[in-house]
Amino acid sequence: MKKSGRPGKNEINRECKDAILNATVDLIGSIGADVVTVRKVCEKADVSIGTFYHYFSDKNDLMMAFVREESFDGFDLQTPLTDIAGRITELYMHLIDKYQELGRDFMKRFYTTDNQALSAYLDEENGCFAPGTVMARSEKEMRDAIVHGILPPDLNVHQTAMDVCTIVKGCVFEWCLTEERMDVQSTLSRILQKYLSDCCPQN
User: Are residues 32 and 116 in the same domain?
Assistant: First the structure.
């Protein structure tokens, strides 16, 4: 195994990047996101440190790959805008489904306060969500619903989007606690329907 240096031509490919990501999933599931290191990932994936830095700038950049792999800006939603709670549920389930496929151990150890990359993704900067994030798309959906008279015009959209994100995190946490017995989608849909109905009387 090469420990340092520039990656060779045969290493710079999708298979190598997948090896790094797969090794990270295994390590997160076994030891937790907070104690995963670049060196441990490289040893697990059997790649050089130089190869790692060809794909990722640091550990946080690697961790961020699990939440920012794709932009939610242009993601097509099938639920009509008139069902705004269902539409936002569908939006978040696209992300949650990906996490569930990685397993409960990954979910439990990824959603921690020590995961700085996740905290940065779910946080806001200067009162705004980062472009392309699921929270920014959720906020946009609510603004569209206001334009079409589905949500009240005086709704604090940003605060509501933050609340929705908190609800989602709670559902994910509960799913982990119940050892996958909870149906995340139906629970999330039910809570969002109730929440939006309570804070948006005309909905």
Answer: no
Q: Which residues contact 56 (CB under 8 A, 6 or more apart)?
A: 20, 62, 65
| Residue 137 and residue 94 in one domain | yes
Closest CA to 115 of 54, 62, 176: 62
Query: Using CA atoms, how far apart are residues 153 and 51, in angstroms rounded to an integer?
Result: 51
Q: Are residues 20 and 79 in the same domain?
A: no
SS3 99: helix
- Residue 22 sits in a domain whose CATH number is 1.10.10.60
pLDDT one-digit tens code per residue, 135-164: 999 999 999 999 999 999 999 999 999 999
pTM recorded for the entire structure: 0.75
Encode burial over 109-134: b for 16+ CB neighbours within 10 A, e otherwise: bbbeeebebbeebbeeeeeebeeebb
The token duo for 7 is 């990656």
Q: Which domain holds residue 28?
A: 14-56
Contacts (Cβ under 8 Å, ≥6 apart) of 9: none
Asked if 137 contacts 87 with a C-beta cutoff of 8 angstroms, the reply is: no
Please state the domain count of the chain. Answer: 2
pLDDT tens digits, 16-50 = 888 999 999 899 888 887 788 999 999 999 999 99
